[in-house]
Amino acid sequence: MSLVFYSNTDAPEPWREAIRAALPSLPFHVWPQTGDPAAVRYTLVWKPPAGWHGRFPHLQAILSLGAGVDAILADPQLPPGVPVLRLLDAGLSRQMAEYAAYGVLHFHRRMHEYALQQRERRWEPLAPTATGDFAVGVMGLGVLGGEAARHIAAMGYPVLGWSRTPKRIPGVKCYDADDLDRFLAHTAVLVNFLPLTQATTGMLDARLFAKLPQGACLVNLARGAHVVDADLVAALDSGQIGGALLDVFHDEPLSRDHPYWRHPRVIVTPHVAAVTLASEAAAQVIANLQRLERGEPPLGAVDRAAGY
Ligand code: NAP
Ligand code: GLV
Asked: Which residues have a catalytic role annotated?
């Protein structure tokens, strides 16, 4: 039995080294090498092409190199019944919380507006907002969103959270799924941590933006397809949205002619809010492989019907 690694962005060497050290009898192939496809029991992947998994008839588990599994589940030919395992934190929570905190500070301290002033050599102090009056709305209170909400609350911001099922997080005012409008109405900066599913695709659209207070800002570090780009550009142009810090996009890399690149109220980063590091995540992947080898239930199995 063997494992095949597929990623265009993650270097295989540290994974090979860590997995070989822990599981020396498990051959580790890096795509396009696979050894005998019939011997492949596990894949360790980031954004494999559609249909790719179909070549391994005896697959026992698909292990994701990321927390989000939308690209894996989007494959209409994904072998049915094979568990898909995602990363649970594995070093990502801290990075996501840092990125979210950066975005909150940026917009709270009106850096998006001072950046515009600087372009025009304009010296114009703006009225500050007390930290305790600047509410941060966190969409998605799972592993990553929950940790970011706690982190931002510890910085002194009022934090509101919204999730599908009710949550209790100290220092966070949690709203249920059917309370989205009240959550939005009180949010000064919206930070998106939702998984990309059928229910959440295109959620960040003109209707939702209109429910935020005028000038509210957006930090999107989840997935690009949560956003209707044309609606966001229109909301930025009208001032309904004051600024956006965007890490993720419909198509990555972002095409050179996309309006986000040049929009004065948008900051673009190249999907780096939280990067999987083998030094932090390999232990979790190895623990899952060992559980699978012992016939124990693995951790981080996603609900394929729910999409996360
Ligand atoms: P998670 O633990 O599965 O948490 C997802 C949260 O979203 C849960 O609170 C869930 O609600 C909520 N949710 C799901 N569907 C919903 C809906 N229809 N309405 C309301 N709430 C809904 O996921 P995670 O580990 O925190 O990861 C979140 C996402 O971050 C990933 O899916 C990935 O797309 C993104 N990500 C981005 C980067 C980056 O570098 N930019 C890095 C890592 C991850 P329940 O709690 O009720 O289930
Ligand atoms: C990165 O985007 C991840 O899902 O881990």
From this structure: 223, 271
